[in-house]
Every structure is written in structure tokens, then in C-alpha cells.
Amino acid sequence: MLHQPVKGLSEAQTFNFPPVRDIFTPDPGYTIIDIDLEGADARVVAWRVGSIRLKAAFLAGLKVHAENAKLMFPASECGEDGMREPTYTKTKKMTHATNYGVTPPTMAAGTGVPLHECKSFLIRWLNANPEIKDWHKEVDFLVQRDRGMSNPTKSDGSIGLTRFETKLSRGNRNRSWRRLPTASFAA
What is the pLDDT of residues 85-94, one digit of tens each? Predict the structure, then answer.
């Protein structure tokens, strides 16, 4: 289904694309695969903003969204391990939304969480992670000054997260990492 209305938003404000597998058909003899590094968005944010707490959780091999759930909600809601549903998924959605600058009304519409809870979550998340608030200010400044922004890159065209990749490989012994050319991330 190409269009799914979201409660609280007009039709003009919502448009959801179907999964990529439903749009593209591979050539004969080829298969579309889906590879997802667990917590990839949160990892990039952790290293981009320099969050000691988030980076430590990743390097210790912890499930960062479970750690975030334990930080943000009582054990009666998220469980002792932070994995109890629906709080685990709610935490994951709300932290991503806050990390990328979503406002409480948009978060409420997208998650189904009441507006007052979204406002409270956003304040508590940014207070617990002041580096993210600083990153938001940096992004706002760059967009105002340059009319856009990009992630740091190096002279060889690779993404400027070598330290991230090196430390990440130590925390995930079964994965090998290499610097990827910027073009790899182009849409």
C-alpha cells in the first residue's frame, strides 16, 4: 500500500513508500538481500555527537535501545533487561525521532504515544544526552549558514568515522569493517 494515513495528519502530510522489495524486481539469477547492522542509526549518532554513554554501551556489546529503555522508563514498563514490549519499540522510535529533531506533535502522530508523553520524553532524552542537543544546534547553524550539511568526509572520499569503525570492530568480533566511499551512501 503506497499511502497509509497517520492519525492526526492530513493526507497531504503523509506518504509512506512500500518496502523496497515490493518496488524492484531483481534481474534473473540475482536476489535482493536486506542487510541491517543492529543499531546502525544509533551507532552513527553516538559517534557523531561523541556520547560517552552511548558509545560505551555499544562497545560493551549491549543492546543500546534496551539500555535507553531502562534509562527512560521504570522497570515495571520496560522489564529488568529493557526488552519488554511495547516499551522497547516505543523507546527505539522515540529516541530516533528525538535524535533527528522531530517535534513532539510529529512524534505523537507517528508513534501513537500521547503528546504529553512525547514532550516529557523529548525533554528527558535531551537532558540525559546533552551532546545530542548540541548536535541539533550545530545542524541548525550549518543549515542556516550553508543551506545544507553533510557528515565529515576525508580527502580519500571515505566517511570520517574511522575511529567509529575501528572500535566497532573490536566490539563485534564477527564483523569486519572497512571505510566506505561516500558514494556508497548515495540514493
Answer: 999 999 999 9
pTM of the model: 0.63
3-state secondary structure of 153: strand
Distance in angstroms (rounded) separating the CA atoms of residues 50 and 123: 19
DSSP 179: P
Structural domains counted in the chain: 1
Cα–Cα distance, 131 to 121 (Å, whole number): 16
Q: Report how far residue 54's alpha carbon sits from residue 164's, in angstroms, rounded to the nearest whole number.
A: 12
Amino acid identity of residue 44, one-letter, is V
Residue 89 domain-assigned?
A: yes
Domain hosting 67: range is 40-149
Exposure of 89 in the CB half-sphere (CA atoms within 13 A): 6
